[in-house]
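To assess whether the prediction recovers the assembly geometry, we first specified each molecular entity separately, as shown.
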Amino acid sequence: MVNVLAYGAYIPVWRLSRDEISKASSVPSAGGEKAVASWDEDSLSMAVEAGIDCLTGVNPKEVDGLFFASTSPPFREKNASSIIASALDLRKDVTTADFTNTTKAGTAALKAAVDAVKAGSAKKILVVAGECMVATPSSDLEQLYGDAAAALLVGEDEGIAKISDFFSVVEPIPGPWKRSMDVFPQRFESKLDLRYGFIKNTVEAMQGLLKKHGLSIKDFSKLTFNAPDPRGYFEIAGRMGADPKQIQDPMFKNVGLTGAVHPLFLLVAALEKAQSEEKILCAGYGDGCDAFYVETTNKIEDLKGSRRATSIYLKSKRMLPTYEEYLDFKRLREKAQPERPRASVVTYWRDEKMLLPLYGRKCGKCGAITYPIERCCFICGEKDNYEEVKIARKGKVYTFTFDYLYGPGFAYGESAALNPSIRVVADMEDGCRLFLELSDCKPDPKEVYIDMPIELTFRFMCERSNFRFYSWRGRPIRE
Amino acid sequence: MVGKIKDKVAIIGTGVTKFGEIWEKDAEDLLVEAVYEAVKEANVDLKKDVEAVWVGTQYHFTGMSGAIFSDPLKFFGKPVTRVENFCASGMDAIRNAAYAVAAGMYDIVIACGVEKILDYGGRGLPLTGLELHPVFGMPSPPAMFALCANRAFKVWGWTKEDLARVAVKNHYNGARHPKAHFRREITVEAALKAPIIAYPLGLYDCCAMSDGAAAVILTRPEIAKQYVGDNYATIKAIGMAVETLEPWYRPYESFLSFPANVKAAEAAYKEAGVTDPLKDLDFGIVHDCFTITELINYQDMKLCKPGEAASLIREGVTAINGEFPINPDGGLKCFGHPIGATGVRMTVELTRQVLGRAEGLQVKNAEAGFAHNLGGAYTVATVTIIGRP
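The predicted structure of the complete assembly is given in tokenized form:
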């Protein structure tokens, strides 16, 4: 039997009111708000955040594999999972894979993880999904899409929930799609996609699962799945003969639809509230459908309150004041851009341990913890006598500035002042000094001040030399 | 360390170009202008008398090394050394040249500096190559010093008005210097209203991007007399220290004092026999790349106790008619900061003040003073003390 050992989730701090979108696009407002990734976040960086949440109290060196799922990976060629595994400080002898190109990718990754554990090739696998989908401005999809990430740690140990065998169907339904060169999703006839894709496949997979396990829909406390629009949830409830109360809140009102993340995201939300011995059905639709269920154990209580997951991250939010700022975050409007110099991918590769899992050094002689890792101690000068240590993730601001001359990620030139860099010297809890750029706040001395508590957040730092560089920034503590 | 430089090196010639946005001249033109002004003042023959050259420059000509100087002046067949040490490149060129003279290797040498910042265009200093790392990039120079300002505001209660007073004082002096880039007085109100460059530093807290060149001619005092009679000054001390380029990663870094400053000042004061600069010296020139830097420099140069620099500026102690004038020329605030030229220009100003022939405001009874040059992220500090022989 394969079990869920831990869960985690991430919702970016920024939210955009659908009324604001409606005002700008003249598409009627669907009400509520959607979660919007910051300009320096993407599916990969948010997956790391969900992974951090999931691995709270878990030794990352015990994890044997990492699968990443997304329809919006930042690279077309280059595994996001390899970067995520490093950022989460997994061992180097682990298996990694990216599951992509369909909203079913989240459940497909989970199925592969479960199968690997079942086959004995791995004891624990972390499945992370991140989604940062971009819809055409003024299209109806624009209000539907939201950005979020989810993570599940599965393994053979006793866990918080047992995972059932999967039941899957496949269907080469046309839409929606993106060709390799497309930025925005394409559709031809969404009614066909809905009827012969989403509804047919989801019902087939759910019914197949019930039959396979000899269960009735009434046996489940919650149904968690992704739908192409909010009405889809009621449609499935009706066709499956489920009470609408059994449908897990799809969080359309406050997050939006999050593609490949959504089935796992809703499953995490259900697990956060679940009691022991509940059955939760989960299905992931996209070119077919995967269905499975989990049955919680009495260990479910052990995890409560230990993770931020959807409950904390939902409450910790700031509204984007304007639709224009949303367009800037998504790089969807023409605007003066700063210059950026070439950056070396070679130094990035060499400094991986400092930049991704964020290790510093602890001097073997004087004990000082410093960053970055250098051969001689910053304090006592002792040479080649240190251990590599992971830097504390929380600290407070020692001093700060708002740099209008050089923006984040070494933006400079005439337009750099449009997005100043919030720079802080921070004393971390282990005594290490870090020099960080802050995200998720504004260059305002009321928001950023000496002694302000901060925590680290994984972000992309810049795009230079046609590469996207990831590392850590600071942010106000989200709780 | 046993070597002493005190009174072993004389400055017999000084030259400095107009500083500013000099679009129509290149670095070669500026260097020729500064060097020939110094050569004329020293009554030396460039080709016959000058044996070696040190030239400070950060940006321009990088990769051209000694040819920086030999090509524009057609000064061939002799040693020329390029010195690059961030914003203290100029004064470090002088330091190297002075030691060569003191060691008896040469009789007459030139130390000079030049920078042509405006040719690079854009806002702020040109890039250095440190930005090649995709994550450990440097903050902008104003941001480096703004980190200190916010800390000083918190710890000592200094205010933006205190910073503005530094700008107002230096603009008052610079308005009266014919070679300054900015020759107009400003008000505290104008400084406070200026746009923010790196919070809390506004436009008037920052020195400008300027072009310029400066040169000095050094020899031993016994030779000096042959060329200029008694019309020379001598170097009393040179102190220099290099710290880190990454102060923000050093635990316990206070951002309220620059350790390189303190060590360079201590070394220079010790060599010159200065125990209380306010009594033993008459004035000073400090590296006011930003207004906050000038205030921290007061403290590091032991003009007052930590936290008291704001009182000095409030009470006018460092004004031109104050007890201890600082930056009587208007400083970097009014001259701008053509990197390699600055430390040399400061030394030219210091020498001319001591000799009673300042081009701008003359400090009364100026017999000895110091010039302080700071570079990098408070990384390199050089302090030179000059007086009458």
